[in-house]
Amino acid sequence: MPASPGSTASSFDEDEINSRVRPHWPSYRSILKLRGFQLDTVEDVKAFYSCSANGRIPDYFLVKHSGDTDDALCPDAGLPDNLFRGTRICDGAKVVIKAVHLHSRELSVIKFLSTPPLRHDPMNHCIPVLAFIEVAQDSLAFIVMEQASPLLWSSQLIDDEVPCRLDLFLAALRQCIEHCVFMHKHQVAHLDISLRNLVTDYQGHYAYIDYELSRRFDGGSIRIPEFRTTEIPPECELSNGDCPDPFKADVWALAVLILRACKLAGYCIAELVQLTRPMLNENPADRPSLDEVLRAFDNMVSIIPNLDQSPDSTHQ
Question: What region holds the Protein kinase domain (predicted)?
Answer without folding.
Answer: 46-316
